[in-house]
Design brief:
about 750 residues; binds alpha-D-glucopyranose; 5-stranded parallel beta sheet; 6-stranded mixed beta sheet; Immunoglobulin-like
Length: about 750
């Protein structure tokens, strides 16, 4: 047993360390005390209107980026409001000069000089565009997401933005819903890991740094459970499902340090989230101890009237504010009604002060009080605050790692760069729809298209032909004939088809999740030529693939990959990089199967794999229950085999751990990156449990002809679920366990959790 008391020879060093730590701690608390003192003295001097002004956020007058309905008040009126302390900040306004002017008015020309905060929807990049978040989630590398969000924050903060309305952490299990593209898919664990990583990336190590951005996990909560996948639609969730599926990514984001959160448009079982006290105060503050502030989604407070949850603006403001939404975005309702509501006593001054205190503390943490103009100055000519080339390289790396190989019959891929005549066909070969939804700003470096990248990669560019074949949602007169001719003249077809940017994202739900018919017709015509086809899907959601698309010899899911779309696809097509992505969402067989997700319940009449013809079972009469490609699925350029599963001990002690090992053998001739996934299934509990739940994953390199061992450790915490009392619960019992390459199959074992 080593002595924990340092020997004499070490005493001075240890003492020095101890004293230093003590000083740092006391300096921090002193700083916090000074900051709190400044804030409290401000609050004591603020009028009610100035207090409400700190809770009022707007898109800037005139220049409305991405929000066409924004109140177009005049620039003069806006400056007057800033000087009167009636505005806390702006979102989605571009340019440093406008921000400097507004900050000047706030800090130098208002009574109390409280700085503004500038926000933006920085979702997947700013000047450099990274893959859409759902595509990036296919990397199954939260650390990668931390790097791309950090790069995004470096770029956006150089334009004066210090607050992003991201990460979107909504679980999405219905592919018809357009906003799944902004999140990390259907699974609780994967989404939680990406949520935390994206918060860390945006906020960085220290919020007071000029390149730090306040993160805003959104949309709190349950937004992705909209009935019918119809955006903004009713959400009717049990509290258990809300707590077990939809809340954990938010908790992960807050545990990672997020200090703002955005309340959602949707109701949950009759109570709109934006005025849901049980959610915004009971859970968020009472259970989770959240210390930041809640900002409404765009006019979500005013929409309480449309919901039929408030008779008018006054009642909407009252209900939203008393429920726990601190800041009102865009409606102006708080400025219009809170002073009167406070005067009448319907809104306690203490509640108003709490909200103001939260906002001012965050502004303080961002360093806005100490240096309100820091980051708003122009860079000296020829300099930038970030390494643009490094960001482009990161964009290419992230794009490569987001690509999922679903099929590669006869090892058609990788293609050769020489001697192969390639017909690039489809509406996404060129410069359109490379960025994906939620790129509300312009001014990016020119992205690289598939056509340009292929031409650049080929030894003889003349071997590449390009033919559009079809428009995205309409036929192209003569397009198919021309494309068929190009296919006949080629050795291989690369078919770039799918969805345009506007077919996913906000207010972009689709009732059908197939490739639009004109493109399907094109794919079928190309398939009929008998030429080998590589399908490149451009998509913001899981798609139901059929006929010529489904039957192609090779299929790559390429989402919206951003600035480096072309080079990343070329890297994979020609084998300069191997595909390593895995699906973060299940790809169903048919649109009628959605909502489709792997961690579904058994039901009392589950389909029985060994009795598929049994009737009176939970299955459609016209479709299988299986996914076309399951959650977690993806191929590399070499086959791998999972083997040698070892699980021990057979009985997991209540306070013990379980070791799970497996070996992954690469039986091919190229190295692969494999994502080993660990799932559990609880055979019987006091609440029904999903057939499987992802509990761990590990991305490993498996060298050609070699093998790599993976090891996981489980404890009873991994077996937790929400019990009948709606509390986290663990119960002894029998569990299944799988280690494998997706949510289907894998090496199977069982174990027992012993009673405590
Ligand atoms: C939109 C979105 C939200 C976004 C906000 C500001 O309606 O729902 O995600 O951050 O308005 O643009």
């Amino acid at each position: 047993m080593r002595s924990c008391v340092p020997s004499l020879s070490q005493a001075p060093r240890a003492l020095l360390l101890f004293v230093t730590a003590l000083c740092l701690a006391s300096c921090a608390s002193l700083h916090r005390g000074v900051a709190d003192g400044r804030i409290e003295s401000l609050i004591a001097r603020m009028t009610v209107e100035e207090k409400v002004g700190q809770l009022s956020l707007y898109a800037p007058a005139g220049e409305i980026v991405g929000n066409p309905q924004a109140a177009h008040q005049s620039a003069e009126r806006e400056l007057a409001d800033i000087r009167a302390g009636r505005i806390t900040g702006f979102f989605n306004g571009q340019g440093l000069e406008a921000k400097r002017r507004a900050q000047q008015a706030a800090v130098k020309e208002s009574r109390l000089g409280i700085p503004l905060i500038f926000a933006a929807d920085i979702i997947h990049g700013f000047r450099t565009v990274f893959p859409v978040p759902l595509g990036e989630a296919a990397s199954w590398e939260p650390a990668l997401a931390e790097r791309t969000t950090r790069a995004s924050a470096e770029e956006a903060s150089s334009d004066g933005f210090r607050w992003t309305f991201a990460p979107m952490v909504d679980i999405a299990r219905d592919a018809r819903w357009g906003r799944g593209v902004e999140g990390a898919g259907e699974d609780v664990l994967l989404s939680s890991r990406f949520a935390a990583a994206r918060v860390r990336g945006f906020q960085g190590p220290d919020l007071s740094r000029p390149d730090a951005m306040l993160a805003t996990p959104k949309h709190f909560a349950g937004y992705g459970a909209a009935e019918g996948g119809l955006d903004y639609n009713t959400v009717d969730l049990s509290e258990r499902t809300l707590r077990e599926v939809y809340l954990p990514p938010f908790k992960a984001a807050i545990d990672a340090g997020a200090l703002s959160i955005m309340s959602a448009f949707n109701e949950i079982s009759g109570i709109p989230s934006n005025a849901n006290r049980a959610l915004l105060t009971g859970i968020l503050r009472g259970e989770w101890g959240f210390k930041g502030f809640v900002v409404s989604d765009y006019t979500a407070d005013e929409e309480l009237i449309a919901h039929g949850f408030a008779a008018d603006g006054r009642e909407a403001a009252k209900r939203a504010f008393l429920a726990g939404t601190d800041v009102s975005m865009q409606s102006g309702l708080y400025m219009r009604w809170l002073p009167e509501l406070v005067a009448s006593g319907e809104v306690p001054m203490e509640r108003l002060d709490d909200a103001v205190r939260r906002v001012l503390r965050v502004k303080e943490k961002l360093g806005l009080f100490d240096a309100p103009f820091r980051g708003l100055e122009d860079d000296p000519p020829g300099t930038t605050r970030y390494d643009a080339a490094a960001h482009q390289a990161l964009a290419r790396e992230a794009a490569r790692r987001s690509i999922v190989l679903l099929k590669n019959q006869g090892d058609l891929l990788p293609l050769s760069k020489s001697g192969t005549r390639i017909a690039l066909i489809g509406p996404f070969a060129g410069m359109s729809d490379l960025f994906g939804p939620w790129m509300v700003f312009r001014g990016q470096a020119a992205p690289v298209s598939i056509e340009d990248a292929l031409r650049g990669a080929l030894a003889d560019p003349s071997l590449l032909s390009v033919s559009r074949g079809s428009n995205v949602e309409t036929a192209l007169p003569g397009g198919i004939d021309a494309a068929v001719a190009a296919a006949r003249a080629a050795d291989v077809v690369v078919l770039s088809i799918g969805e345009s940017e506007k077919m996913s994202g906000e207010a972009s739900s689709r009732s059908d999740i197939e490739v639009p018919q004109p493109q399907q017709d094109l794919a079928n015509a190309i398939a009929a030529t008998g030429k080998p086809v590589v399908v490149l899907l451009r998509n913001g959601r899981a798609l139901a693939l059929k006929q010529g698309v489904r039957d192609a010899r090779a299929i790559l899911v390429t989402w919206f990959l951003g600035s480096q779309t072309g080079p990343a696809i070329a890297d994979i097509l020609f084998g300069d990089a191997s595909p390593s992505g895995r699906l973060p969402v299940s790809f169903p067989q048919t649109p009628g199967q959605v909502p489709y997700y792997y961690s579904h319940k058994r039901t009392g009449r589950p389909e029985l794999a060994d009795h598929p013809d049994l009737s009176y079972r939970a299955r459609y009469i016209d479709a299988t229950n299986e996914a076309l490609y399951p959650f977690g699925f993806g191929l590399g350029y070499a086959p791998v085999r999972y083997e040698a599963l070892e699980v021990g001990p057979a009985q997991l002690a209540w306070n013990g751990t379980l070791s799970v090992k497996a070996r992954i053998a690469n039986t091919g001739h190229r190295d692969v990156e494999e994502t080993a996934q660990l799932y559990i299934g609880n055979r019987a509990a006091s609440v029904t449990r999903p057939v499987r739940e992802l509990k761990a994953f590990r991305k490993v390199n498996v060298p050609a002809g070699g093998a790599t061992e993976v090891e996981f450790t489980l404890s009873r915490r991994d077996l937790e679920f929400i019990g009948q009392d709606l509390q986290p619960t663990v119960e002894p019992g029998q569990f299944d366990l799988w280690v494998g390459p997706s949510a289907v199959g894998g090496l199977h074992s069982t174990f027992v959790l012993a009673p405590g």
